[in-house]
Amino acid sequence: MGIGAVGIDYYSYISSAEAGKSSKEESLMKSKQTDSFQDILTNKGSETKQEMLGRYRDNVLGFTAEIYETDKGNSVYSVKIEYNDGKVETKEIDADSIDAANCNSIDLFVRLKHLEKNGKCDNAFMNHILARVYMDYRTPDATADTNINFRGWFEQQLELEKSQGFWNASSKLEKLLMYL
Question: Is the pTM of this model over 0.85?
Answer without folding.
Answer: no
